[in-house]
Amino acid sequence: xxxxxxxxxxxxxxxxxxxxxxxxxxxxxxxxxxxxxxxxxxxxxxxxxxxxxxxxxxxxxxxxxxxxxxxxxxxxxxxxxxxxxxxxxxxxxxxxxxxxxxxxxxxxxxxxxxxxxxxxxxxxxxxxxxxxxxxxxxxxxxxxxxxxxxxxxxxxxxxxxxxxxxxxxxxxxxxxxxxxxxxxxxxxxxxxxxxxxxxxxxxxxxxxxxxxxxxxxxxxxxxxxxxxxxxxxxxxxxxxxxxxxxxxxxxxxxxxxxxxxxxxxxxxxxxxxxxxxxxxxxxxxxxxxxxxxxxxxxxxxxxxxxxxxxxxxxxxxxxxxxxxxxxxxxxxxxxxxxxxxxxxxxxxxxxxxxxxxxxxxxxxxxxxxxxxxxxxxxxxxxxxxxxxxxxxxxxxxxxxxxxxxxxxxxxxxxxxxxxxxxxxxxxxxxxxxxxxxxxxxxxxxxxxxxxxxxxxxxxxxxxxxxxxxxxxxxxxxxxxxxxxxxxxxxxxxxxxxxxxxxxxxxxxxxxxxxxxxxxxxxxxxxxxxxxxxxxxxxxxxxxxxxxxxxxxxxxxxxxxxxxxxxxxxxxxxxxxxxxxxxxxxxxxxxxxxxxxxxxxxxxxxxxxxxxxxxxxxxxxxxxxxxxxxxxxxxxxxxxxxxxxxxxxxxxxxxxxxxxxxxxxxxxxxxxxxxxxxxxxxxxxxxxxxxxxxxxxxxxxxxxxxxxxxxxxxxxxxxxxxxxxxxxxxxxxxxxxxxxxxxxxxxxxxxxxxxxxxxxxxxxxxxxxxxxxxxxxxxxxxxxxxxxxxxxxxxxxxxxxxxxxxxxxxxxxxxxxxxxxxxxxxxxxxxxxxxxxxxxxxxxxxxxxxxxxxxxxxxxxxxxxxxxxxxxxxxxxxxxxxxxxxxxxxxxxxxxxxxxxxxxxxxxxxxxxxxxxxxxxxx
Length: 922
Fold this sequence. Notes:
Elements: H1 3-15, H2 58-64, H3 85-88, H4 97-100, H5 128-138, E1 145-149, E2 155-157, E3 163-174, E4 180-193, E5 196-205, E6 212-215, H6 216-223, E7 225-229, E8 232-237, E9 240-243, E10 245-247, E11 250-254, H7 262-276, H8 282-291, H9 310-315, E12 336-342, E13 354-360, E14 366-371, H10 377-392, E15 398-401, H11 410-419, E16 422-425, H12 435-455, H13 462-473, H14 485-490, E17 504-509, E18 521-529, E19 536-540, E20 545-549, E21 552-559, H15 562-567, H16 570-578, H17 586-590, H18 592-602, H19 611-616, H20 620-636, E22 640-643, E23 651-652, E24 654-662, E25 668-677, H21 698-711, E26 734-735, E27 749-752, H22 762-776, E28 780-781, E29 788-793, E30 796-801, E31 810-811, E32 814-819, E33 822-826, H23 828-834, H24 863-878, H25 884-890, H26 899-914, E34 920-921
Parallel strand pairs: 1-6, 2-5, 12-15, 15-16, 23-26
Antiparallel strand pairs: 1-11, 2-6, 3-4, 4-5, 7-8, 8-9, 10-11, 12-13, 13-14, 17-18, 17-21, 18-19, 19-20, 22-27, 24-25, 26-27, 28-29, 29-30, 31-32, 32-33, 33-34
Helix pairs in contact: 10-11, 12-13, 16-18, 24-25
Catalytic activity: DNA(n) + a 2'-deoxyribonucleoside 5'-triphosphate = DNA(n+1) + diphosphate
GO molecular function: ATP binding; DNA-directed DNA polymerase activity; endonuclease activity; peptidase activity; RNA binding; RNA-directed DNA polymerase activity; zinc ion binding
Protein name: Integrase catalytic domain-containing protein
């Protein structure tokens, strides 16, 4: 380092009254003899007062001055640009070495802005082996850890009990202090770690050191495989993956000793507390315990620093720091209430799609209320405001929201006026103006995602996860107060002794137990504290019901079997999963009832599933109108005729399928009802014969679009409404009239004259009928694609591609846009659906990672893996040929899926997220 830089650093140390002289650690390199240049002025006669970093707390310094946050003048870490001695010495700005050499680790500066930074240990890559051995020798805390080292050339341990066989050897081990220790034995060591036993061959036994070092190079060569992604090493041995954890700029794997020590017991208790309090920081719990902010916290101590939590890493990863709002002064609860909507989420088990977040600005007290429609928000907010006023005794003065339609209606404004509340609207697209609620939305979402990932809770139970997080949030300490939000509003200390880990297994007492030989309890899933009863609420996956009870035994480390949870929602999951991949499965694509049920999930936020739900709902009049329109259409098109049931067998049932059609903004534009046949009860040879109907191919679509561009032809569309109802039916099919249809005589049934939605042969009837009409007017079918027709008469040419969807702007899920002499095809909506529940923590540039994928013994297929592969196959066939090889490779392992295959699939999904804006140009 130049001499003048050292002089500037020395002068700065003299100016600082709180910095120890030991902070400046620099070697004198007096190669330059230029006089010290004065600092360059920043312009103007006055300068801004600089932030005094040495006045900051040690915790703040360690969080904000790290190797990832260097000085942007010299690109060494340990100080900021404003204190950089190179800048103050008038030297030019250095270049960032990470630009020319990605992955470069920045050096620690000789000049440090705060004494706390001197305690941070840094080891260079070339010294990893020696530094690790030296650290283990001096620090007993690492004695039970296996430190991972990329520079070591041998495995080394001081634990004799780990070896199964030992052979004499006469070599020495060098450490950082230049001392050499004798190595007396070499053999195979076996480590008990989380997930199994890790076996290391050619391990050196050196009793003079303390601890264990694992050489990553030797492990890759002799013992298994090593992967590094997301800042974590993963060791793979015998198809078992062992995940490392970072600690003090190193990576380690924790050994699990047979006798459990007190320190480990305290750490386990800390893990349970971390999960109970929905993955909030243990530092907050420590502060709460010290201030006695709540009742019921355990009395035994726990570590003040959180252990590495994988669920938090997956759930709370952010791309950039959250933008905080300016501090607003509020004096009491109720001064300002902030509201906002979150969602849409996957449809919950009770048909919820959105969530309403309401928060008191002063106390941070938050409520989360699940909604089926956006339109429910206004009345829900008004009801909450009245309840808050009654329970807390605080008068609400202002309500702040965005400009969404549910918060700007005349009815909502009138309700606020009656309550004497002023309504404040934020400026469009300026979300930081309502930053309080934006931040709590992120907090609730991250914690809900973490607790659901932790216990593998089904996605359909997300409203209870959010409610549980809100309950915990109101009983945690937050900035600026020594009371919890609950105490600030309600005036009493909350009791958290009833808090249990969300999603854990609970054995709930059965009060109806009568027989001695029957089980006296049921194994259920814990979903939090009941809001309208004194007790907990549980989910029964088998019966798909909720249970409230105050008598239960909790296994807070237990997780309900994944298949048992998913079986409870198999119906709704199946509908949602196949919605976008229907073109892949020919039979599913031909079943119109399946499509309509998919529409119910995709389009219908809260559409009823049953006829009784429709007529009992608040929108019953609109559903009745929709059903009347459908029945009127069937009558006008002579689809059926009423007949007596005498002598007729094999009468099929009918049902109603409901959907809510929405526009791009998510607003409901149409209530849709369709009468369908329960075609799954049809018998081949009696009420149906052939069912095959050709499906259009993407090759034909792209070819037709290319021809249109080459010859400058126009591309137009037409739509046949209620297409199936135009198709004559050859077989005799009888159905019961749908609920709500009047008949001339009770008991009469309907004979179908034309195909109706739900019949197995409906698609074939429509194809046969349409093909006959087209041939009659001169069209000829294409030999390679029977859904493509051509017409030629005296130089007039027409090409026709028959598909089953909306219009040319959205063909079978493909967005088609014509710009000049180009057609642009994309499937962004399908990729967004694929990203639901996926955490995109990196941006790969290739579809596949550098992983060796091997087959395993065939077993039952992983349904989730199968679903995602199907969706990506549809993408590859239609608009994304760049992922064709990758998805075909991963499709080989549908019935032999392991964690490596899942890692590769998640890598591919992240690649699609990174390239979501890519289009196929024709």
